[in-house]
Design a protein that fits this description.
This is Carboxymuconolactone decarboxylase family protein. The chain has 109 residues and is mainly α. The chain has five helices and no strands. α2 packs across α3 and α2 crosses α5. It is elongated.
């Protein structure tokens, strides 16, 4: 993979998501992130929220967020879950963009 100027920032973001301490466990954040990126199903209510964020974040409902808040027990923990899904969805798109750029560069050579 070609090194991009932002690659180290992306790597740091991925690492922080799965290793840094938080209100929620790193394994939950990693699973939510992966699900939002199209990964395997996870336990509800995390699955519905992560999938929705990954597919069409504009359609997330208050009920989906509230269900996660109820299970996690706090707004801060629910926020971590939402952010993990957002990061997973965003990095999935980042990875796709990097692949497209590399393929276009290879095709031009």
């Amino acid at each position: 993979m070609t090194e991009h100027a932002s690659a180290r920032h992306v790597s740091a973001l991925r690492s922080a998501l799965t290793t840094e301490a938080g209100r929620t466990g790193a394994s939950l954040r990693a699973a939510v992130s992966a699900r939002a990126a199209g990964g395997p199903a996870i336990a509800e209510p995390y699955d519905a929220l992560a999938r929705q964020i990954g597919e069409a974040s504009y359609a997330v409902t208050d009920a989906q967020v509230e269900a996660v808040r109820q299970v996690t027990g706090s707004d801060k923990a629910a926020f971590e879950v939402v952010m993990a899904a957002c990061v997973g969805a965003g990095l999935s798109r980042w990875d796709a963009a990097v692949r497209a750029i590399e393929e276009a560069t290879d095709a031009a050579d």
